[in-house]
Specification:
The chain is an alpha/beta fold. The chain has 15 helices and 14 strands. This is Glycosyl transferase-like protein.
């Protein structure tokens, strides 16, 4: 089977990790797998950047090349993010008035040539995140008339007038407008959320899409949104991880390898761009760890390791008896796994989250999880068995749960055993691969029996 996946990046966290894992596993099972991305970071074969530049004018090509060269350093070097956005603004100057008005940018001409990327025409297209300034959403009606198009949603951007997550706002159900926060990623300059919402609605009306989500929480949102009208078939397929890489290990050996003291309670949190990550609650984490470290019952030093900091160097901060160690983003999976295996508890404080892979990785490594009960997280944790679910923003409850595990070593150990067991039963990457491949076969068998609706390109796309 020839499979073409589409995503913003090939290497990063969350959606990128899932798409890349699927790509590798498909190749190992001898499928013709290709991954088309907006921004390529790896040197892996069969991964291609969508060729927007060759279909743009000279002005756009120049600024686009400069923006792409800056992209890998956005979270590593101070000031690069501003330079990157400046290049993007200059690139878009010929049609920047739309952006100034708050319109979402869909002008990415290489999208129309997506099916030319693989050497042979794919049997289907499996798209992941379509935001991130690289994909022309107006292509969906035409693309879905050519072959089956699967959308795996990792956030709610396709359902709204601009934001990837709406937090407590539910205006995405009725057409957006009067947006409470235009700065939520992907940010827009003015409140054109009603226009953007209706624009997406028009695109979906002319599309036929197969939609999957990793959590029932996100699927319920899809069913209440304007995307529902485009759905031919839908499926909840939980994310999976490679259990040959993420598994329990001897804590003493791993800590000696990482230089972590043996007589220290270790709490771990993993997220890309921890300080700047709006979906996570870094302030809650800091408050909680200080409470735990300075409690009267604590007999050990408490070390909080934050893996995925944007800084280039490993550094430490001290708050009373609490120590915060910030470790830069690790590309090597083996190194990331070691940090999980060295921890006593995985702590995940989020304001919103779809189905975080980091929680699955922690469970697989045999450590209990204390996390805020938001989004799809309650679908990952068995309360009191593999971890604790805490009301969002409740530092007292989170601190109490962590203390319960740190001071009751037997319960912490037993919950870790249950966590690893549940990961083996529910979150094995082999199960995820099998679920997708089985669904692909069903889709292809059904689509061969019924002709796809012959929608062409919209007038807006031809403009």
């Amino acid at each position: 089977m020839t499979i073409l996946q589409v995503n913003t990046y090939d290497l990063a966290g969350g959606a990128e990790k899932i798409a890349y894992t699927l790509h590798e596993q498909y190749q190992q099972q001898h499928h013709h797998a290709f991954l088309a991305v907006g921004y390529k970071r790896s040197q892996a074969p069969n991964i291609f950047s969508i060729p927007h530049e060759m279909y743009q004018g000279r002005w756009e090509r120049t600024w686009n090349r400069l923006a792409q060269s800056l992209s890998p350093f956005i979270w590593k070097i101070r000031g690069v993010k501003q330079m990157y956005h400046l290049c993007c603004q200059l690139r878009e100057l010929p049609h920047s008035w739309r952006i100034t008005l708050g319109h979402e940018d869909f002008y990415f001409p290489g999208t129309r040539h997506l099916l030319e990327i693989p050497p042979t025409k794919p049997a289907l297209v499996h798209a992941h995140n379509l935001h991130g300034n690289y994909f022309d959403l107006r292509v969906l009606p035409w693309l879905s008339s050519q072959l089956p198009v699967i959308l795996t949603l990792h956030d709610a951007w396709l359902l709204s007038g601009h934001c990837a997550h709406s937090f407590d706002c539910e205006r995405w159900k009725i057409g957006c407008g009067q947006c409470p926060d235009l700065s939520i990623y992907p940010a827009i300059h003015r409140d054109a959320t009603t226009y953007n919402w209706r624009r997406k609605q028009t695109i979906y009306t002319k599309s036929q899409l197969y939609v999957s989500t990793p959590s029932h929480w996100l699927m319920r949102k899809v069913e209440q949104s304007m995307l529902s009208q485009a759905i031919v078939s839908k499926k909840v397929i939980p994310n999976g991880i490679d259990l040959s890489l993420f598994h329990p290990a001897d804590k003493i050996t791993v800590r000696q390898k990482l230089g972590i003291p043996l007589d220290t309670d270790v709490c771990l949190f993993v997220a890309h761009g921890i300080h700047q990550n709006r979906w996570k609650d870094s302030q809650l984490l800091q408050t909680v760890i200080i409470k735990v470290a300075n409690s009267r019952e604590s007999k050990k030093n408490c070390l909080f390791i934050a893996l995925g900091a944007t800084e280039k160097e490993d550094y430490m901060e001290h708050y009373g008896r609490a120590k915060f160690r910030f470790v830069p983003f690790e590309k090597e999976t083996a190194s990331v796994t070691n940090y999980y295996q060295a921890a006593d508890i995985y702590v995940h404080a989020a304001r919103v989250d779809t189905f975080p892979t980091t929680i699955l990785e922690a469970l697989a490594c045999g450590i209990p999880v204390v996390a805020t009960a938001v989004g799809g997280i309650p679908e990952q944790i068995e309360q009191g068995n593999t971890g604790f679910l805490i009301p969002p923003g409740n530092s007292e409850a989170m601190a109490a749960a962590i203390q319960e595990l740190l001071y009751n070593h037997k319960r912490c150990h037993d919950m870790g055993i249950q966590a690893a067991k549940m990961a083996r039963e529910r979150f094995d990457v082999k199960r995820m691969i099998a679920d997708y491949l089985t669904w692909y076969e069903e889709i292809l068998n059904n689509s061969s029996k019924t002709s796809l609706c012959p929608y062409g390109q919209t007038d807006e796309l031809r403009r």
